[in-house]
Amino acid sequence: MAGFTTPELVAAVSNAGALGALGGAMLPPDALREAIRAVRGLTEQPFAVNLFAPVEVGPVDPDAVERMQRELTPYREELGLGAPGQLRPPPPRVVDEQLAVIAEERVPVFSFTFGIPELAAVREAGCVILGSATTVAEAVELERAGVDAVVAQAFEAGGHRGTFLGPFERGLVGGIALVPQIVDRVRVPVVLAGALMDGRGIAAALALGAEGVQLGTAFLAAEEAGTPEAYRRLVSEAGEEATAITRAYTGRPGRAVRTRLIEHLETAGAEILPFPVQGALLLDIRQAATEQGVGDLLFLLAGQASGLSRRLPAGELVETLARETEAVLAGLTAVS
Amino acid sequence: MAGFTTPELVAAVSNAGALGALGGAMLPPDALREAIRAVRGLTEQPFAVNLFAPVEVGPVDPDAVERMQRELTPYREELGLGAPGQLRPPPPRVVDEQLAVIAEERVPVFSFTFGIPELAAVREAGCVILGSATTVAEAVELERAGVDAVVAQAFEAGGHRGTFLGPFERGLVGGIALVPQIVDRVRVPVVLAGALMDGRGIAAALALGAEGVQLGTAFLAAEEAGTPEAYRRLVSEAGEEATAITRAYTGRPGRAVRTRLIEHLETAGAEILPFPVQGALLLDIRQAATEQGVGDLLFLLAGQASGLSRRLPAGELVETLARETEAVLAGLTAVS
Fold first, then answer.
1. Which of A31, A143, B28, B189 could form a disulfide with B211 if both were Cys (CB 3.0 to 4.6 A apart)?
2. pTM of the full predicted structure?
3. Cβ–Cβ below 8 Å for A169 and B333
4. Which domains does chain B have, with CATH numbers?
């Protein structure tokens, strides 16, 4: 949800008794610090900040960039954009600076994905630490690195795949299979992320052995989220078949609603560039599509149950989820 | 589980209070009738028989067959097999005859996958009817066709994908996302199939809104199953990353443990033939590999949690699953 987690959303979730999380990965260090302080101004409750682990960026083939830019030309024309600017290389090791901010601000909970960053400073600062795993092997590795809990990212989940050991195809494990197998292999608590939209999913996660749940897509629809209007509409209308895991948007596999842009880039001859280069190439298109409300040129990250989302104030959504979960559990007791 | 569901397995499951199911799809009509009668000789409880809906078989390109046979030559040599025999076309409309057997024998429960067969005769015969869906649209279509319950086949499930509306890639929906969305759209009960191996999975299915569960992989390990020894071992050792959905074995996508045969056929240039032709080409290899115990040339259909399987007598497995489910539900009540 990086980009849509406003301080208002984070604080509203925490004030309602859940743990609000700020998606900090795309924020430069100063903006990250500002956002953390904005959250602190709105809540006295614990909250989390999420970052990406450092990702190796290899050399970029200028011819491949040129070929991809040609594929993108029709979309730029449609949106009235001029020729793309020079591709700027991502700033080196921005993660180190972001991590320093997390530690300096003594953020209550620090979570990360895409690998394992250097944890000494945040641990020293007293942060509770959560890492994201898509396989048992990754969960074991995270435990070894000293996380306090493992977030099991299931196949169903929206957003970028967190897989960091081996090819991403091997980390496509449905939640029902993933949670028990991780729970059996680590001692730290397991939190399920993936298509949890109402009390049914949350109760199921608990039945599988998870001790917590993480909801992203459900909160895209919250009033306080910074989700653009066209994004909200398309994600809430998306059926269970509507998403796919694609590299087309950023170069890193992620689950998003299929759009004509994805369909085109996946079938065009041009090679999709590595993360984060592909994402940088698409940035002007995404921004213009957002401003103009051209929904099917947006990058619609969403899980496989986004059609179950509800537009509510975030605090009310948290309360609704808690009430529904209680009701499902009570109903199951009646069965047993 | 077609091929491994011995009458002893089916009867033991039904005698323990669950619903044993005979995988009848690969049985010629006479053998199907014999198997049904054998089950009846071992139990007075209800049981099910599962068939494939009729699948259109297009014309086969002899050159493509030739190319695939060349890819298979090293495996035939390894297994000491001679040159392959002439490819025999599948018997036309064997399903009609199988369906007639189901109706004549008044099988208590009839279940099917791969589409929707003609249901008039089995309905007339008083069979309870279950159809398999991988999407909401398929579930709605099944309800319209008059099924008594829908089996939701999740992404996690072992075996052939049942997708019959649209491309199979669109029917890859994790159980946590699939069940609630189907439950919200049909009035008939929903049964979850997919990586359910112990009480945790079963309790999760109930939390999601399923009124029943279907377990295949878990019963591959049952004492009474006809599962070859090498198959049992490899499936019970398979981790959550070990399976993939592949067309390599039969031409129809199915979830199976990755083997060197799959890896080779998926990356070899030769086109994989349509179902069931590809399966017919591989039949002698599979049979010889079974006899010789060459595990990684077997067709190891299995779900994403097969590593949780337990080798027990089937009746004991049913009782264990029931007891575990009760315990999980009781534990959840304590939470709520």
1. B189
2. 0.97
3. no
4. 7-54+93-259+298-335 (3.20.20.70)
Q: Provide the 8-state DSSP code for A171.
A: G
Q: Inform me whether the C-beta atom of residue A175 falls under 8 Å from chain B C-beta atoms.
A: yes
Q: Is the pLDDT of residue A106 over 90?
A: yes
- Based on C-alpha coordinates, what's the Rg of chain A? 20
DSSP H helical segments within A43-174, as ranges?
A: 62-78, 94-104, 120-124, 136-145
**Do residues A9 and A20 lie in contact, with contact meaning Cβ atoms separated by under 8 Å?**
yes
Q: What is the ipTM of this complex?
A: 0.97
CB contacts under 8 A, B 259-298 vs A, are none
Hey, what amino acid is at B196? L
User: What sign has the CA pseudo-torsion A298, A304, A306, A307?
Assistant: positive
Encoded tokens for B198:
């112990």
Q: Give B203→chain A minimum CA distance, Å.
A: 6
Q: Which two tokens stand for residue A133?
A: 């795993």
Which two three-digit tokens encode residue B135?
């999407």
Q: Which residues of B touch A303 (CB under 8 A)?
A: 177
pLDDT digits (tens, 9 = 90+) for B152-166: 999 999 999 999 999
Three-class secondary structure of residue A214 per DSSP: strand
- pLDDT tens-place string over residues B263-280: 999 998 889 999 999 999
Six-digit token string for B312: 């027990």
Locate A151 and state its tokens: 């977030």
Q: Which of A180, A186, A161, A164 is nearest to A172 (CA)?
A: A161
Identify the three-state secondary structure at position B154. Answer: coil
- The CA radius of gyration of chain B, in Å to the nearest whole number, is 20
DSSP A16-70: TTS-EEEE-TTS-HHHHHHHHHHHHHH-SS-EEEEEEPP-------HHHHHHHHH
Give dist(CA A319, CA A317) in Å, integer. Answer: 5
C-alpha A8/C-alpha B148 separation (Å) is 48
Tokens of B23: 């995988």
